[in-house]
Design goal:
There is one protein chain. The chain has eight helices and eight strands; from the N terminus they run βαβαβαβαβααβαββα. The protein is an alpha/beta fold. The protein has a five-stranded parallel β-sheet, sandwiched between helices. Helix 4 links the parallel strand 4 and strand 5.
Length: about 240
């Protein structure tokens, strides 16, 4: 990324999917100096699992994987309704029919090794920046503007994600609702905003990194705590 360009909202994460060590190392050496974090998967199935567990911003996929073709992998990514830019990579040339098939499967483009890295990153950086800014806009729509915690919509989304993970891995998951003891106070007292902001800050500072904290009403907060059983929830 050029120093004159707008910085990314957060460091982008690229996932390289290939069984070839030399291909993986060649690509990784290009990405790290440009501010990307890089993960690697050896198979398509492993990469699909990574997509469910991590917020991947770019996929670099070998045309020929051990367990499926790169085109079949793109079809499965598209079937999961995951919006991630995908570049299909080959060590040989692409025919016109192969390129059309790749684009029809959901790949954003194809390239061959060796490649012009400057031209490649002009394209990839534009994709990734657009993806990150879109993620940032969607994330803001899930936050309570007064406290910066999740709003009801954001909580529902995170609870669905955490619940699916708890079921898949057979782990405990707790949901705790806290209400500020404000007696008969309504929602228009001038001091109420200060109390809510102080309480939200306490929750943010004392919550675990894995906890999801949100606000569902003027005085009610929710903590969704992974790997927390009933005893742990009472302690919370």
């Amino acid at each position: 990324m050029s120093t004159t360009e707008t910085p990314y909202p957060r460091p982008p994460l690229a996932l390289i999917v290939t069984a070839h060590e030399w291909v993986s190392l060649s690509v990784m050496t290009l990405f790290a100096p440009r501010g990307y974090a890089v993960l690697r998967s050896h198979t398509g199935l492993q990469a699909l699992q990574r997509l469910r567990e991590a917020s991947v911003d770019l996929l670099i996929v070998d045309r020929d994987l051990k367990d499926m073709s790169g085109i079949d992998f793109c079809r499965q990514v598209r079937g999961q309704n995951v919006t991630v830019p995908v570049m299909l990579l080959s060590t040989g040339p692409w025919t016109r029919d192969e390129k059309l098939a790749a684009l029809q499967s959901g790949a954003w483009d194809v390239c061959s090794l060796p490649m012009d890295s400057e031209e490649l990153f002009l394209r990839l950086d534009a994709w990734v920046r657009a993806k990150l800014l879109g993620d940032q806009s969607r994330e803001r729509g899930l936050l309570d503007p007064e406290t910066g915690l999740y709003n009801a919509q954001g909580l529902l989304r995170r609870m669905a994600e955490l619940g699916a993970g708890a079921v898949r891995h057979n782990r405990a998951l707790a949901c705790v609702v806290l209400a500020a003891g404000l007696g008969d106070a309504g929602g228009d007292e001038p001091w109420l905003g200060d109390v809510v902001r102080q309480l939200s800050e306490v929750l943010r500072q004392t919550g675990r990194a894995s906890d999801t904290i949100g606000r569902i009403s003027p005085t009610e907060f929710v903590i969704v705590a992974p790997d927390t059983d009933p005893e742990g929830a009472r302690g919370l």
